[in-house]
């Protein structure tokens, strides 16, 4: 028995549902085989993206075998999109943040925030990923940047996050009603009576 019902889970994992809906409209996406193929390509794409990013920062063979090991540890079915979309957005956000800081390109910092905003729309507890913004302050101190520059970099990350999250929040309100997000939050809090992993701290 789920206290909140299916709608609350749909709101809590809204972006994963949207991605799944798009995939079902692709050729063969309405079959289990087709969906496994498309979601499997998502995992392969993440591994390739991470490999090409890492191979310039460590021996290529270590990056390669690290990605092979990572794929071998993907025990959750690839069709669990709210998990794998979380991984994809966090990976993309981390790389964009790193590149944005190293190359001093605020557009990439904006992108990093946007990807993390999308991650929260994929699964609510992903809000903790936003702690990556601490890297902006840490890197700024390491490189002895001015407070104004650090604040500008952090502001870009926050702006990207807010644009994407608020856009998704707006669509959710239009689709399910203005109180849907608040109701979902209250519903998830109700789960902790039967499962402690749904307490605010655990999530």
Describe this protein's structure:
The chain has 203 residues and is an all-alpha fold. Helix content is 71%, strand content 0%. The chain has helices at 6-12, 14-24, 32-54, 60-72, 81-103, 106-122, 134-142, 147-176, 180-190. The longest helix has 30 residues, at 147-176. The relative contact order is 0.12.
Low-confidence stretches: none
Helix content: over 70%
Provide the succession of SSEs: HHHHHHHHH
Gross morphology is: globular
**Helix-strand category:** mainly alpha
Strand content: under 5%
Question: What characteristics describe this protein?
Answer:
203 residues, mainly alpha, 9 helices, 71% helix, 0% strand, globular
Provide the fold topology.
Elements: H1 6-12, H2 14-24, H3 32-54, H4 60-72, H5 81-103, H6 106-122, H7 134-142, H8 147-176, H9 180-190
Helix pairs in contact: 1-9, 2-6, 3-4, 3-5, 5-6, 6-8, 7-8
